[in-house]
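Methods: example folding runs. The two proteins below were folded one after another, and each record is reproduced exactly as written to the output file, sequence line first and structure-token line second.
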Amino acid sequence: MPPSVVLDVQPTIGTRSHGLTAKQSMRGHMHGPAVVTDSVKLWKTLSSNGVLASFHPILVEVPQFPVLVVIDLDCNYSLKLLTMVNKEMFAFPYRWLLISTNESSTMISTVFAMNIVLNSDVVLARHAEAGNYTLTKIYRLEPNLEIIQEKFGYWEDRSGLVLVSKRSGRRNLSKITLNTCLVVTVNDSLLHLTDKRERHIDTISKVSYALLLHLGDILNATLKYSVQNTWGYQGNQSDWNGMIGELQRGEAVIGGTVLFLRSDRIPVIDYVGMTIPTRSKFVFKQPKLSYVVNVYALPFNWTVWLSLLFMVLFIVTTLYEAIKWNNCTKENMRKRNYFESKPVLLDIIFLAFGAVCQQGSTFTPSNASGRIITILMFTSLMFLYTAYSANIVALLQSSSNNIRTLTDLLNSRLSVGVDDTVFNRFYFPHATEPVRKALYQQKVAPLRQSPRYFSIRDGIEMMRNDHFAFHMETGVGYQFVLQTFQEHEKCGLTEIQFLQVSDPALALQKNTPYKKLIQIGLRKIHESGLQMREVSLLYTKKPICLNKASSFVNVGLVDCYLASAILLIGVILSLAIFLFEIILSKQ
């Protein structure tokens, strides 16, 4: 028979017959001499067991599904074939069945010297007696360690495959050393990795370290740590620096500090699913409504303002006609005082304006109809004035909800700052989306100005005292908010996402044989609640507003800027008219 047969099996529901599943489809690749003759024999055997099969001369590409490779170690061609595949193919998706009928064959020793690592799936079938075979799984924990033989089962002609144990011992790494790289931006953090002090510094590294301690216990492995001050970014060449550089060069197996998923990193490292739910966002107190819009126009909508205008015009017209009609009667003409001034339209307009502002006027109608109209005008406008004033008081104490997106933040009058971290200094200048790029260029790093990077302590203090939006890691920053903000100041905190990234995940050396084992360990940490516990010890949730009503709002000049602007315009206009009158009087 040929030294190897490669079988790609795609199972469907069927019945078992001597270890083969009926109604399966199978694609085979046969290598070695007498391929045609042996492929026909194998095809007949599979067909008799209800298995559809097709054969091809070579295995041209790495498949995306598990592949079973069967090798006859007694064939002379098998040594050459094993030498060809020794470097990379003893790993997923290949599964190997090595058959030997000669117990004293030197091929067994040759197989034990192969690169069969932890994630290899290699079964050695040794002939026992009368067509029976013992099945042993073989692997090694490290390339330089002895091969480990694990009894898997046996094969009998009558009963077929019999499994002895499904539990694998390869989950115990027997204290072998796994090189692990941590990212620490402040050296003092190495002194506080486990004591929960200085929680706001290198928080994500401290959480990752705590979880790695659990992972080492689960795997029974020794983690040997190295330290870098950056996660790693690609230089002008294909080389990477920082933690990713160590993973790329094979100096580390585990990237001990979680990092963001980026497409340019995928060819260099493998991500595994220990995500830490942390977010970096712009956080700010929603500014007062008067800081964003003109509150003096908000109490009434445009229909009320329009109705008010028509009502005042109607009252002025009616009052003017009533006074004019009264003055035109002969009796009134005779009773008219010589020194009484003749009412004009301007007097009535000033009277109406005074009524709108709830102020008096020097002019008062003398006839009954005019006085009745004046009383009705003052009464109706009094209710409108009261409603307007009450709304103004409420609006001056209100926070706006207008800043909800990055575009709103860019167009607002809020100043902006960013937490001074390695990844913020990388991601902000490299933003390509138009709004994010404009936000960085206009507010974070304006032309001819120093970039606005602050420590997290200073940034949160500015956020408390000023109209300021601070980009920070929220789980860390909210710890300072709880410590420094008064209860009512916690109300109205708003978050806006800037970084277009998902939750950070753990990184491994590319194609490391420990990947699956580490994934299983991380899943256990997550399902047991250890991950949630470690995260909650170092990260703080967003504060809850408990007593918003206790806040006292000061009214500043910015709240009264429209009234101040009207007063200033009036003073300037009156001075201009005064000067104009002086000039006219001299002429």
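Second run, written to the same file directly after the first:
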Amino acid sequence: MTAQLSSEQIRTLITETVTAALQAQLQATAQAQAQQGQQQQQGQQPATAPTFSMAPGGGDQTKAWDFASDKGMKFYSQATKASDIKYDGSSEKLHQFLNFIKVRASTFGMMIVLDKVAVDNNKTRSVITEYGSISHEQMKTHAETYQAEDNRKRQASGMLVTLISNSVLPDVFDELMQREDKYTVKVTPTGTTNAVAREDGAMMLYQLIAMEEQYEDGTVTGLEHPELNGLAAEKYKVISSKKEWKKKSKQELEFIAMKAELEQHKKKQLTQQPISDARKGQSREGRQGGPINTGEWAWKSIAPKEGEATEKKFKGKKYIYCPHHGETKWVLKVNRQGLVHATSCKARKEKETAAASLTATTDTDQQYADALSSVIEDENINKPVQQ
């Protein structure tokens, strides 16, 4: 017969069995967790905290952008997208264009090649805001510090070349291309022995600014004949595209208009039917006299003295004094068309118009306006005046 276990033995057996089962379960769980940890280490690395940046192109400037990735391609496309209003090469629009470049470069990390250009005395300058204090040689030295490397600065320079090319009008780009040697540097890439030529974005912007500045302020000096001829051809192309070639200034147009008016008046005078000798010297009522105040009409050329009447009656007609008709001082108070001279004097209105045109003009404008006023006055003197 099998001996029966006591209650104490049964409790001991149950405790041992449960303990063994729990130990086995804990060991299995530990092995599973260890295997999972190994798989995670072999598969993907744990995420790291992002580097703080104020714009998409910020972050760690020592790391190159990955333009081969989807994010990198989108970044490059947005960074080099053309300006809505393309730069026409004019000095008036240059400031606006530079502001556009500054905003885009700040947003997409291209300022690393536009700022801190080394100049004399360990100082640095910005291409955009301090162009005038940077020389071409200093720009060249600046570009050579990064063009030989595969780094972010060289990438930023390349993006800048594309951005500028996309954001200027075709004729401005053609003009820039003629200066390509001035924004190209020769460097020997790290790990190689052969020199290569590479376009630099910062130098390209520098040349774009210089191109307009030199034309406008007349600082194109010290050039050989071939280079000077080339620059002249460039400038002709630019001003032709702006429709400024042989464009008349405001003063020239005013003088041409004045001269044309005078020539037309002279032509009209020459083509008028000459008055026969038999009719010369007669009074206006007898179809005589013309514009010359002689004989009994001589009084018309004499202005009233201070205190004398400015209105008189002669041969049944009323005359008033008017100082705006050159030699003739007295005119009909009411002309044959029924117009009251005091309110409808054309000579006075013409002089007032000429005087108004003198407001806010330059000295040259003043001379032209005076000449025009003189011509108008001469015409009024020679006009036949109603007797």
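Comment on the second run: The beta strands are 117-118, 124-125, 184-187, 196-199, 311-314, 317-321, 330-332.
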